[in-house]
Amino acid sequence: MKILAAFMLLFVTVTKCHEPFQVIFQWSSIDVVWPSEEEQQFAIDHGDYVAANNFIAGIKFWKDKMYLTLPRWKDGVPVTLAVTSTTPVNKATAPNLKAFPSWEMQKIGDCSAFQFVQSMEVDPKGRMWVLDSGKMSPLSVEVKTICPPRLVILDLENEGKVLRIYEFPSQVARHGTAHLNDIVLDHEDGGMAYITDSDRDDPGIIVYSLSNNTSWKVRHDSMRAKPEAVRFMVAKTPINMPISVDGIALSPASSTDRQVYYSPLSSFHLYSIPTSVLKSNTSNVDEHVKELGRKISQTDGMMMSAKGVLYFGLLADDAVAMWDTKQTASFATGQRVISRDHERMQWPDTFAYDADGNFYCVTNSLQNILTNRVNTSIPNYRVVRARTGVKSYQYLEDGTAPKQPEIPTSLANRISLAVTVGLIILLAFVVQAELSAATPSRSHIIDLELTSPMETIKSASEIKTLPVRLHDFKGKLEEVKHVTLLRCRVQ
């Protein structure tokens, strides 16, 4: 019991105002729940699963599930978006991860499936916004450009059903070089997403409008890697890699003049820009970008709480720091380290909140992935947790969520639906005509099912002929979700 307690309560808490982090999960290597033992062995034999190349990066929570990303930085990563329980089942702290939403959505080379997922965010309605860069194995000898970069929205309340797919145009996210790194969500103005693109030659913050289903990129010199911050050490491992704008955070939903905070990984500085400027699609943002101060180390992920506390990692210090934006206006004097552990806090990558006010961090020793030094006989990847009692930036301070935007039905979807309905009706009439010609003395019923959020008509007894059935459907055409020709019945 003493050993377990020492394992779970591990971090030196530098400030007394924050509870210590506890290790909830840790893995020496990541494995998945395979469809069968035969498929697992086939993947191992053919290099489709290489244990040392699988690591966790992104983390988010919804209800009793923990969602994780496994970016395909190298070959041999069969699953790039996965799910497991929020808490260990039967005390298993290194569970195999389940493909989410399915194995079909993990197929390499299939552009309708996920190719390279590093980050995602879950809104208060249970919709997961997933970033897919579309490329493969950027750390391998040959980078494989397979699919265009895109945003995919999944419904976690409906087994991960796809609600929207948006492919970024090449002038926004360059196909083959874009690296969709991180994302924050804004419920205002019909729903907005702010996405960091770490493209080495064209970095910037991508703005996506949910209501208009369009996007643009905001570029600024502050978003580029800085030469003085390219080289650093993590656990005595040298890193020399220019990485542009990476971490991103958004001030709380209760804020009146909301700000986006960001920093290139290869930078010591934190910057901010108003969301109003990002939404305006202005090409010159010089006067609006504010340099807030210098950090003691490079930073990967960052996140804001509902009460305006910004959390961020310090890579070279194996630490997590915070800045209470509402208590101290100055970042330079307000930032402070809250946890440091030189063994277990190597490379604090991403952060997340659950619905109960717990704050999580993924530490993944990414320096070993980057330098081919992964030792699968020791713990490498951890999910740690601390109690804060608040929720994420997407919620109000009292824990409630502001009204969330709906996903509108696009014109293309409505046209596609109208064509589908028309074809079904035409087919039904053809069948009815054929039946009438063959058996003129009998009556015929064509069952047609239309399903919408408003009503579902299923019973053939409700109508006598096809036209009446269509008129009896009270929903709006754009709300129809499913159209099926059920059967033809001769009476």
TrEMBL record:
Give the signal peptide, or none: 1-17
Pfam families to which the protein is assigned, alphabetical = MRJP
Entries under InterPro entries matching the protein: 6-blade_b-propeller_TolB-like, MRJP/yellow-related
Alphabetically ordered keywords of this record = Secreted, Signal
UniProt superkingdom: Eukaryota
Principal localization reads secreted
Quote a single Gene Ontology cellular component term. extracellular region
Residue ranges the record marks as coiled coil: none
According to UniProt, the name of this protein is Uncharacterized protein
What is the organism of origin for this protein?
Answer: Heterotrigona itama
